Amino acid sequence: GIEWQQKSRAYIARGNAHAVQGDSVVDADQLVAYYEGGDGEATRITRIDADGSVKLTSPSGVATGTKAVYNVAQRILVLTGSPRLVTATDRIDARDSLEYWRDKNIVVARGNAVARRDDKRLSADVLVGNIATAKDGTQKIVRIDAYNNVVVVTPTDTVRAARGSYSVETGISHLMGSVKITRCDGTQLNGSEARVDMNSGRATLSSGSGGPVRGILVPAKKGGAASTCPKAAKK
Questions:
Q1: How far does the chain reach from its first CA to its final CA, in angstroms?
Q2: What is the pLDDT of residues 158-184, one digit of tens each?
Q3: How many C-beta atoms lie closer than 10 Å to residue 1's C-beta?
Q4: Could you tell me if 159 and 181 are in contact, meaning their C-beta atoms sit under 8 angstroms apart?
Q5: How does strand 157-167 pair with strand 139-153?
């Protein structure tokens, strides 16, 4: 049913509640729409609160969580409760919140944020996904910027850094600030900047302005035992 609370200026929709604005749809167990105006003036909805099994469907993907607040004027959606965004190729999870800024075309994941594609993973305290709109109106994330405690995982390497960026189209990640590369065979390399090809798994380390590259190399096992690393590590 739908309830109108005149004093609090709110409409409450309960049970498979459904709201539409443009090309975006919000579904939840309950939706509360707060409005301004009335008493002879045109009413306008200023905020929508969603509670329970929240699902946002838009051209950029499907976002889910347990609670959400949508600021209509600023066109910003904040999703909480194990929020997740799933696109045609990627998945982004966060512990604290997932924000969708429609006018800026960005998605912000906060708290143990993780972006996944196949067996590759990029995590950080904060991930910012930049969205591009194609001529046919479809949207997709084209770049992800990562801030604080950045970790890139490929089939052959684990790379840690202070910040970085990932081009979704090329599969290349650029990492900066106290970069540490740990190979699957135990080899460890330290530098200030790194370039990681997420497709091939190859990582290239450079010194930049942070001093020379340093590392610990693990020799082959006695008897010439083959490396346990995947084949991509031998390229």
A1: 62
A2: 899 999 999 988 889 999 988 998 888
A3: 6
A4: yes
A5: antiparallel
Structure tokens at 19: 């709201």
Separation CA 57–CA 32 (nearest Å): 18
Predicted model pTM: 0.84
Q: How far apart are CA 25 and CA 16, in angstroms?
A: 12
The count of other CB atoms within 10 Å of the CB of residue 169 is: 10
Q: Which of 91, 78, 231, 211 is nearest to 155 (CA)?
A: 231
Task: Quote the distance between the C-alpha of residue 189 and its chain's center.
Answer: 27
Average pLDDT over all residues of the chain: 86
Q: What pLDDT does residue 232 have?
A: 43
| Residue pointed to by tokens 């390399």 | 189
Q: Over 60: is that where the pLDDT of 53 sits?
A: yes
C-alpha to C-alpha distance for 33 and 9, rounded to whole angstroms:
8
Read off the DSSP letter of residue 220: P
Residue 43 contacts residue 35 (beta carbons within 8 Å): yes
